[in-house]
Design brief:
It is a single chain. This protein is an alpha+beta fold. It has one domain (about 15-305): Endonuclease/exonuclease/phosphatase (Deoxyribonuclease I, Chain A, 4-Layer Sandwich), CATH 3.60.10. It contains five helices and 14 strands. It has helices at about 45-55, 65-75, 105-115, 210-220, 240-250; strands at about 15, 30-35, 90-95, 120-125, 155-160, 165-170, 180-190, 195-200, 230-235, 265-270, 270-275, 275-280, 285-290, 300-305. Helix 4 packs parallel to helix 5. The longest helix has 15 residues, at about 65-75.
Length: about 300
Amino acid sequence: MTTAASDVSLSIEFGNELTTAPAANTNSANLVFASYNIRYAVGRFLIASGIGRKAGFNIPSNRLRAVQRNIGIAAKAFSENLLLPRPDILALQEADKRTGRAGHQHVAAELARQLNVPYVHAAVDIPRGEPPKKREWWLNFEEQIAVNDPGDTGVALLARIPLTDATRIDLPWHDCPWRPRLAIGATVSWRHQPLRLFNVHLDPHGPLGNQYRQIETVLAHANEHAGPTVILGDFNTLSKQKAIEIRKLMEAHQYETPFETGTPTWRGAGLRFHADWIFGRGVVFHRHGVAKPLNVSDHWPIWAEVSL
């Protein structure tokens, strides 16, 4: 059952648990992990739509229809085994819950419904009544959640394997007080042993040290688990330096990734950055990739096939 829909700030929400879809085989030799900053399913044109709003145009004009269409496109991508193998576990970031900018859709819940899988969602709990603060100009294109919007954004895990021990992790944040950041952890039983996974959404604002503190908070939680661990999500490494340094930090903690540094996972206005990652400890990576040309968001989904 789904927790109360009227309270968007509940710590963790479980939904679609009564699905009748067959679960993935927990004794399977390999599992597919995927991560997608879905950008509240509003489309790929982050910068163009931001410029349009400054000029007085709401792009897309029919928000509900656009979001519903994009969720349907994403559901096909994650189920048809064309752009990527069907994920056993899908981590979502910027998964809005009934915000105006998302057409008042619960993005994770609707995508989970169409995929016929359970989900776990954590809302960031944006401060109510507090307007956004001025930011660096190159990060000022995102459409903000309205000051009095009762909705929220957050992270989610959609899984064909039962998730247990779900944990909300509030990350330290400084330069962006109107937009808290968080991660969510959960455990899956795979081949008769627990695997711990963490879906993270780091803050792109400010210096590299801000991201260090956030990922170190996640690593501290991960280090409580001695077994295999996967950390994936939007690390917002929106520069070559940040991508190199965050990878070094993860490798210093014995985490590996199959992705070459500099692999484009985000694009806008002709720019390409390696923002999204999948790291693992105690696991072996096999196939992996970036699911182009999915245009539901300014990010592309990334995926990796993993064995123990």
